[in-house]
Design brief:
six-stranded antiparallel beta sheet; DUF1963 domain-containing protein; YwqG-like_sf
């Protein structure tokens, strides 16, 4: 099923013509539960990986912040247990888990001492360029694969690894990819398999990236709009009204603008050539929340007719970055060989 973002409440570039030259195309990926194959674009799905290509591993320092890592199988079993519990009928005031199930879950969540040595990377996203309008890679490639080490690193995020390849040159496939021995204690960096429903939308910069005078006018305009739409509401989001409703689309996406929120923008230049980094992929902790409900696709607006289980409709991949933030991967526009940049926003 395709996903359709509702039109924005106002054509913001008509109200503020200064924004028109700043419009950017973004592709909302709309990951949804499914069983993708290696020949499809996906989040958390299998990768089209040659049997004779070495699987990447992480040798960087990991930070556990007092919580022991768990195994990938521990995460999968924990999720399956809780999923089944949510979906089964229960009597009023009946506990979600039986005593035996609670004890088993506690065992799964105990964790183990960190393993020394390399940690195999975990598939995060596979994007065929044919599916993602505007996405381009090195000459001769038609596929982007994103993997990461599912543990915290220096910036409190997983460490990503990008692979561009020509899908037509892949011969025999790797049948049994290595799996990480350690993952984040809470399984925050273990994406569930999702198929994608790419959709092109237009974005404008967050207020943080606009000239102060324009941001102030947007703030005043936002207060006026809010007062007209909800005159009985005392709280006005001000400039956040523009940010929530008209600037940056929430959720997993390719391209567009940075979802700046709790921190201000800072200069991001390639260490090799000093070019300004450009957004490649946004990994989100959810496609919508209380402040971004207007971006919910039309096809997802009906209340589920049956229990949804552990996977929230707003977060099918079940990935959590920080305290519900975004991880954005930037690349150098001058060369795909230059190192990429990761930032939490």
């Amino acid at each position: 099923m395709a996903r359709t973002t509702p039109p924005r409440p106002v054509d913001i570039a008509s109200v503020f013509p200064e924004l028109a030259p700043l419009a950017r195309q973004a592709v909302r990926l709309h990951p949804r539960p499914g069983e993708p194959t290696v020949h499809e674009s996906s989040v958390g799905g299998p990768l089209l990986w040659p049997a004779d290509d070495e699987w990447p591993v992480c040798t960087k320092e990991h930070h556990h912040y007092g919580d022991l890592p768990v195994s990938l199988d521990d995460v999968r079993q924990s999720r399956a247990l809780i999923e089944a519990a949510w979906l089964r009928p229960r009597a009023p005031r009946e506990d979600l888990l039986s005593p035996d199930q609670r004890a088993y879950l506690d065992e799964l969540e105990t964790g183990h001492p960190p393993h020394p040595g390399p940690n195999a990377l975990l598939p995060v996203a596979q994007l065929y360029l044919r599916d993602i309008p505007g996405l381009a890679g090195p000459e001769g490639t038609d596929l982007l694969q994103v993997l990461w080490c599912p543990l915290d690193h220096d910036e409190g995020m997983p460490a990503a690894h990008l692979v561009w390849r020509d899908s037509g040159s892949v011969g025999k496939l790797l049948a049994d990819p290595p799996e990480p021995v350690d993952v984040d204690h809470y399984g925050n960096y273990v994406p569930e398999a999702c198929v994608l429903h790419p959709e092109v939308v237009t974005e404008y910069p967050a207020p943080h990236e606009l000239p102060e005078e324009l941001a102030e006018r947007l703030n005043d305009w936002g207060r006026e709009q809010w007062a007209e739409e909800d005159p009985d509401e005392e709280f006005s989001p001000g400039s956040a009204y523009y940010q929530y409703e008209h600037s940056v689309a929430p959720g997993w996406k390719v391209g567009g603008w940075g979802p700046w929120s709790f921190c201000d923008p800072w200069p991001m230049h390639c260490d090799v050539c000093k070019a300004t980094y450009q957004p490649l992929l946004t990994v989100s902790s959810g496609e919508w929340d209380g402040g971004s409900g207007s971006w919910i696709p039309l096809e997802d607006r009906e209340e589920p007719s049956a229990p949804v289980g552990l996977r929230k409709p707003s977060d099918p991949p079940m990935v959590q970055i920080g305290r519900g933030y975004n991880m954005q991967i930037y690349i150098c526009p001058a060369s795909f060989d230059h190192p990429h940049l990761e930032n939490m926003q």
